[in-house]
Amino acid sequence: MGTRGIAPEELDARRELGARLRTARRGAGLTLRQVAQALDVSAGTWSAVENGRTKIDAARLEKAAGLLELDPVALRDAPRPDGGGWRDFAPLRLEAPLAGALEAFVELGYHGSTIRDIAQRARLSVPGVYHHWPAKQDLLVALLDLTMEDLLTRARAARAEVDGPVERFTRLVECLALFHTHRRELGFIGASEMRSLEEPNRIRVAAARQEMQHMVDDEVLEGCRRGLMTTPLPKEAARAVVTMCTALPQWWSPSGPSSPEVVARQYVDFALDVVRVAR
What we know:
2 domains, 279 residues, 434 Repressor (Amino-terminal Domain)
């Protein structure tokens, strides 16, 4: 089932539920194929559910909740994983193989890392990593999925908080800057390892990245249409702003002089200048 013609609110709800199901599945140590088999659906169908591309009916949701030892009502209505709003960043908690993979990919790069490197950082044996993660590529996909799910959920919440293109643009830039400082490791591999993704995951993750860019594009185009922004190149300006924010993990450090909140305020000012908002 496609997503054309579905209300944005319904699409957001599907994506958030799918993200919860994926998190619960991984927490239970189950593969996508194992869950699909237990629920009597194809692996492709369950992948579509986890990625918000298709709806899960109440009966199957209840069965999935039982399999994953979750309350179906709490599963559908669960709060954000970190328990806060879009500006709140709880410490990142990953299962050991994912934490090891993230550390290895940041330090050595995807192609420079081996499963042995990941296992050492995760304090596991190599067979212990392979037990739940059949390939290094699966770990990269999981980390990039997590990155985009978290960022897009926060960005949608930030954008929905205010009215007007300048205000929404300001919130989106603040969100991007906060994410790429508080979650700098995820942001770093999100920017550097897209080239390492294999199909069809590369297309899917790229589409999520494009969704983030399109949010900013839309606000700049609308701001220019209303005469609130005067850049003669709205799409190029929007892309420059997003690129500026996604480059933060390359230089920002928690040991440096500026907190994420200070950097976010600075980058909002920079971004308003780029799109030429009169102040």
